[in-house]
Each structure stands twice: as C-alpha cells, then as structure tokens.
Amino acid sequence: MSKPFSPKVVTANALIEGDVIYLAADDRWVRSLTEAEVLTDEAVAQLRLLDASARSAEAVGVYLAEVADGLDGPQPTHFREAFRATGPSNYAHGKQAEG
Hints:
five-stranded antiparallel β-sheet, 5 strands
C-alpha cells in the first residue's frame, strides 16, 4: 500500500543568482517559502513540477519539497529544506540578514 500524498511545494534554484526559489500559484518564482503554492493533490503536483521543469531559462534543480501548515504559511518538514529556506550559510546576508 502506498503512502498518502503529503503537501508539497515546487522548489528550485534561480538560474542566474542561485537563490532558492519557490513556485507561487500565479506561476511566479518567489524567494519566500510563505509565498509558495502548497500542492495537496498528487496529480496537480506532478503537473506543476513538469511545467516548472520546462522553465530551464529561469530555474535549475526543480523538485517537490514536503511542507506542513504553519502559522505563517508553509513550513519545511525536513532539515535540508529548512536550511535552504534560510539562505546561504557562509555569512549573514540575504535571507539570514533579514531575520
């Protein structure tokens, strides 16, 4: 028996800047996980993933990341995604400097 589908977001890295990006419901790439479209249907998630993967001039390394509902929107459920959401770790800049 297969595991039930859990909520996911489409994530990647911006082609030029390398920033972590997320796909919003209006097809924009956003840099904040709280703005990402949360996908709760597996078929829709696969379609959104295929569409995002075809946008190779904008993003690289496109994949689905599991999230959970939080007070401020979607929250990462795995360490890797929590780490990616905070920005680069070499010094405080970008997302780390903001929060």
